[in-house]
Input
Amino acid sequence: MKYGAIIGIAVSALALFGTFGVANAQSDCKTLVKPSPFGPDDQIGATNRITPAVTKAAAAEIQTGAVVSMAYNLVDGVPLFGTRFTKTILTTASLVPGAEYGKNRLTYMEDTYLSQSHVGTHIDGLGHIGIMDCYYNQTPMGKFVTQNYLKKLGLENLKTFATRGVIIDMVKVFQDAGKLKTNPACRTPCLDGGTVITDADIQAGLKMYNVTLREGDALFVHTGWGDLFNQFPAQNANYNKSEPGISKAAAQWLADQKVVLVGTDTWAVEVIPSEDAMEAFPVHAILLTDNGIHIIENVRTDLIAAEAASSKRATFFLSMTVPKTVGTTGTFVNIEAIR
Amino acid sequence: MTAFRMKRRHFLLATLAVISEKRIAGAEPRRFRVAFANLNEEPGTRIDGLGFTGAEIRRSFELASRSLPLDMIYYDNGGDAEKAVGNAREAVSSKVDLLIEYNSDAKANAEIGRHLKTAGIPLLAVNYSIPGAPLYTADNIAAGRIAGEALGKFAKENWPDQTPVAAILGDVSDLGAAVTARIQGLTEGLRQELSDLSPVQLDSAGHSVRAGSVLAKFLVTQTRRKILVATLDDASALAAKSAVETAGRMSDCVIVSQGADRSIHGGASEKKEIDPANRGSVILGSVAYFFDRYGYEILPIALRMLRGEQVPPQTFTKHVLISAKNVFVEYPPVDMN
Output
């Protein structure tokens, strides 16, 4: 009892210390992050813009019913960022003779999937990126993290992504402008690593197919860099070393157009190395932290870009669902363009 | 003037203003052709006594110019005065708008300066002055002083009751101005914190392996003393660390280096010596020279010159001590785990 009391006091003191530790780490989030235009309690971000009217209008994009895949297969060996890993383990125990279930000899199999969530074609949630401990909508995340999950800004809060998708073929934009510098490792034309995609380039890409962005659109950019992903594992190091991507100004321009997501066939959407060598992933902060706009990485864009080129139509109905995994910062997704 | 005429005049003026504004807004900014003549891009050649290569410097110009209205032309001086003069002549023939010259030979630089002046082409010098040209340069004394002060402060805070010895380890016999200035700064910095300290100089002759063995011998002569080691480059710092560990003197020694090149710090996955997760290292840090950011620092100065703005006669690198505490702030990783 005595020892129990001492342990209890020690645990309480540690808990108090821990609380103070977190409190001390908190920053003034109102000076670091923009407020959400959707109110101080908002955890949904730009998907607020996908109203029934937006979804209904997007449905008009379905003209032939043809479905174009925009996700890569997720399999051991694809390029992974940093020290991330994926490993699947198949449970086959009941296949052993005599281990079947019941007189109908039923067997089953299932998988254990060991992986970080930001692998393959995946979505970055609002809890993924912050400035110090300040995240989307000036949220002081120090108060809302546990060892296992977020208590705020988790993916379970997101609305639908049933909206209009727009593909920009940046390879064609750069080819037409006579400034395409491809990477020798790409088997098809690609923008080289470190190539900055400006807001003017994006506007040129929209003009190519006479598209005007609408509030609630999902924007995808084909850079050709995804060809290196497709060559896994041979080009994994090249794929991760750098990438073409959008500039800070382009990210801000897209935020001003009120898009709901930006996706590319690269691992970070933004240009790497960054325009400013002293900044870490500034486009992530502009889109996710300041504007609640989701980022989709490692998107397979080549098929829809080819489809747009042949049909001269760059818009489609976006089919993408995000599992309601509570308190998570991201997850792999499947994406399809319905035409 | 009648009210109608005035209104019409105001309308015309306003229309003209809108048109001219649109023209200005839509106009592409003027692009300039800028040449950069690099010190030496020979693979494996270290630049100015530190661990950087010419390729890293050139890459920084390539990256920095992406967002600027500049079309770059690159020359490699190859560490050769004659070649540097030839490259400058070629830049003049190519009618560049400005030349950025990184060449260590004073006589050749004087000739290059005269040649560019005759051609009316502005010149910006890097690390070695050229008469009449603005200079962007490392502040070698200041960088040395930062390291000396860091060592001295560590000793005062952690070994307040002891009198340590100090050693400057590296290519101390290099008679170049940069190394001489770094040694001067190191000495001044140490003495600012510990006024009685006179650092000994341990010569590695520019070979990092030798730096380790030279320090190992020195450690044997100082068995009861705390030792402050200032290395002149990062390769020497890593060799010194091995020597300290081999001698079992980790609690007696600390090391501060010069350069902060990629051999000593890395990304979030690419673990190297200076890393947030390695705060107990005997290498306290390394003073950054940012050779791998020269393009980002120098091209904006060139652009100001091209736009006719005044630039200071000398612009110095802002050196900082890169340690486990700030390495990811100063060198943001592009991999997160």
Summary: Chain B has ten helices and twelve strands. The interface with chain A takes residues 60, 62-64, 66-67, 267-269, 293, 296, 328, 330, 332-337 of chain B (CB under 8 Å). The first strand of chain B starts at residue 32 and ends at 38.
